[in-house]
């Protein structure tokens, strides 16, 4: 049993916790409480008058076909982004774990893209795949493929998924590399001596032992796809064409800041918060059961 830590002053633990508690209160609980409060009000665009409408904002939102479309778009976008980012990062981490010379340089280069801001990442991919001057767009047209994400909804969705996944690969890569380093090499060597091939060793030994890391990244990537990809979508497509890339978080912005529908926007933010909390709870309730903490 580790020795109990005794602080010289009874107030010191609270002082150490105070900055984090203040940040949590100011940037999470206060905005969340304001969203709950405004979701039951109807305000004019100038904020000069408001009246209580109860759950009317929620009824209007859930009956809006555009909001149902945003739910479908978000489901496709979040699943595809998380799957692409995690699978690619796992592949790169396994490859990096085999590198002997220059391993540190290789890993550092892989981590760098995470430092790029979401809006910058979106603009980078937009320039590369811009239908008029993008390098990769030119290559696609040279093969006879009619590439135009500014007018084609599925192509626009593919572009934002690729940009969002590219931005998150470095984060996932970092944790997968750490997870691979924690796996005892003796287990893998013993399996190799017993005649297990590389693929079989990965799926029967390596991947099950990475289950805690994979579960953690699943939760993180889900939250990332729902919230942190706003800058990418705003820079690349602006929710278009024809609302084909308008996710839930982007619709909250569009209705609240562009159309000045404050009550509807607040109700949408509350629904989004409930959806993310429910998904996280389901992941911890059912997915974590299959996770082995060895």
Automatic annotation (TrEMBL):
The keyword Transmembrane helix applies. Its main location: membrane. Pfam families: BPD_transp_1. It comes from the Bacteria. Residues 71-283 form the ABC transmembrane type-1 domain. The complex is composed of two ATP-binding proteins (UgpC), two transmembrane proteins (UgpA and UgpE) and a solute-binding protein (UgpB). This is sn-glycerol-3-phosphate transport system permease protein UgpA. It comes from Aquibium carbonis. The gene is ugpA.
């Amino acid at each position: 049993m580790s020795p109990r830590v005794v602080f010289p002053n009874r107030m010191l633990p609270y002082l150490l916790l105070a900055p984090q508690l203040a940040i949590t209160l100011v940037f999470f609980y206060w905005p969340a409480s304001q969203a709950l409060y405004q979701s039951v009000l109807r305000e004019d665009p100038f904020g000069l008058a408001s009246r209580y409408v109860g759950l009317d904002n929620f009824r209007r939102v859930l009956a809006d076909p555009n909001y149902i479309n945003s739910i479908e778009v978000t489901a496709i976008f979040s699943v595809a982004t998380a799957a692409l980012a995690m699978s690619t990062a796992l592949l790169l981490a396994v490859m990096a774990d085999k590198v002997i010379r220059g391993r540190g340089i290789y890993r550092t280069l892989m981590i760098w893209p995470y430092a790029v801001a979401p809006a910058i990442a979106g603009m980078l991919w937009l320039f590369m795949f811009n239908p008029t001057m993008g390098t990769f767009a030119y290559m696609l047209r040279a093969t006879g493929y009619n590439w135009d994400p500014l007018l084609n909804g599925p192509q626009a969705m593919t572009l934002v998924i690729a940009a969002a996944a590219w931005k998150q690969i470095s984060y996932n890569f970092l944790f997968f590399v750490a997870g691979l380093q924690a796996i005892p090499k003796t287990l893998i060597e013993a399996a190799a001596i017993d005649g297990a091939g590389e693929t079989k060793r990965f799926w029967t030994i390596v991947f099950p032992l990475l289950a805690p890391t994979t579960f953690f990244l699943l939760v993180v990537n889900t939250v990332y796809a729902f919230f942190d990809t706003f800058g990418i979508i705003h820079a690349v497509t602006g929710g278009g064409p024809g609302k084909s890339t308008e996710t839930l978080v982007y619709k909250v912005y569009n209705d609240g800041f562009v159309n000045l529908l404050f009550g509807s926007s607040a109700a949408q933010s509350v629904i989004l918060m409930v959806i993310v909390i429910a998904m996280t709870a389901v992941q911890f309730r059912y997915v974590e059961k299959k996770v082995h903490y060895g």
